[in-house]
Amino acid sequence: MSNQQRFRYQDFTDPKTQLVTADNNQNAHDIYCPQLSCGCLLLRTSFGTLVERPKDKTASPPNDEKSDPNGTTNSKENINWNNTNGESTSQSNVEYWQLTDMMAFENIGFSKTIEETGLKYICCADCNVGPLGYHDTKAQEKEYLIAVNRVSYDVSSLISENIV
Ligand SMILES: [Zn+2]
After folding, report:
1. Residue 23: φ, ψ to 5°
2. CA-CA distance, 37 to 2, in Å (whole number)?
3. Which protein residues have their CB within 5 A of the ion that is ligand 1?
4. How far is the CA of 130 from the centre of ligand 1 (A)?
5. From ligand 1's centre to the CA of 107, what distance in Å?
6. What residues of the chain score a pLDDT lower than 70?
7. pTM of structure
8. What's the pLDDT score for residue 92?
9. Bias category Polar residues: which stretches (predicted)?
10. How far is the CA of 128 from the centre of ligand 1 (A)?
11. What is the spatial distance between Cα 123 and Cα 109, in angstroms, rounded to a whole number?
12. Ligand 1 centroid vs 1 CA: distance in angstroms?
């Protein structure tokens, strides 16, 4: 298991090609918790579909313990979500893996619903790191969204083909 190669979104030279299946826009690799010390499997290949959603839904998540006493346990490790080259901060839309059925996840955790926004934040079922995405309980379309740049990917298949 320790031999598996995990990559973040920003590690890919051409994520749109390397992460997405060409024919149906689904995730081409298994998706894992971004914390290397955890590595929980979250979603198997081709269970998510790439979509764009407004960035503001996860722009200011409840990551302060004092403001979210009933929410999920906050991670002790700090993850810098935008440790690339700052490109993502200027985008108005963010790309997510969309699921319409929460049972399609291998492992996943949810925060309690935030009353003001109707959002449930998605986190790792094992270590509670998050938010990795969200579920909008007020949305007309029922969907669960995992931010493409907040998770890790097992790309051992890509490495064997010398693409990465
Ligand atoms: Zn985890």
Report:
1. -85, -35
2. 10
3. 33, 35, 38, 40, 124, 126-127
4. 9
5. 9
6. 1-4, 56, 59-91, 157-164
7. 0.78
8. 78
9. 69-89
10. 6
11. 5
12. 15
**From the CA of 125, how far away is ligand 1's center (Å)?**
6
- Write out the CATH class of domain 6-160: mainly beta
- The answer for residues whose C-beta is within 8 angstroms of residue 3's C-beta and 6 or more apart is none
- Residue 153, φ and ψ in degrees, nearest 5: -125, 140
**What is the pLDDT, as a whole number, of residue 5?**
77
Of 95, 101, 107, 106, the residue nearest 133 (C-alpha): 95
- Residue that is written with structure tokens 């839904």 in the block: 57
